[in-house]
Amino acid sequence: MSTNQDWSTCEPGELQALRSRLVRSERNQRVVRAAGIVSTAAALIAIALVVPRQFQQPAPIAQITCQVAVERFDDYGKYLSQGTPLPSQQADEMRQHLTKCDRCRSQFDEKFPGLLTATVAALLPLVWLTKLRA
Ligand SMILES: [Zn+2]
After folding, report:
1. DSSP at 61
2. Could you list the residue ranges that cross the membrane (predicted)?
3. I need a labelling partner for 93 at 20 to 30 A (CA). Which of 54, 84, 85, 119 fits?
4. Is residue 63 within 8 Å of residue 101, measured between CB atoms?
């Protein structure tokens, strides 16, 4: 019943060779694991940097984004041309946005030709006076 007969004496150096083989394979596994962690971390960092940028809203100009400004073109156009009531905050935001944003201003100019120029011309003396006082 004894299994002792299955065992035999080791050749000289056999255990040493087995040990160094085990150490080597353990080292290899550690390197593979570290490489995996590093590449996963790099991928996560890349995702963290790239993904939010795609969902990020463009920076607002004068409180409102270009998208909001474009949506309010009709209201603001009627407000300027016909005096259709517009909440004063919205009118302010639109005026400031169109003053600072070239793209929206030219789009608005295409839709309502001359309207902004007329308004700006009417406001210029006011701007001039304000600057004189400052
Ligand atoms: Zn804009």
Report:
1. B
2. 31-51, 112-130
3. 54
4. no
Residues linked to residue 61 through DSSP beta bridges, in sequence order? 64
Domain boundaries, the chain: 11-55, 66-133
Q: What is the pLDDT of residues 60-107, one digit of tens each?
A: 888 899 999 999 999 999 999 999 999 999 999 999 999 999 999 999
The model's pTM: 0.49
Helix (H, G, I), strand (E, B) or coil at 129: helix
In this prediction, residue 54 carries a pLDDT of 63
Q: What is the Cα–Cα distance from 54 to 49, expressed in whole angstroms?
A: 10
CB 98 within 8 A of CB 105: yes
Distance 82 CA to ligand 1 centre (A): 23
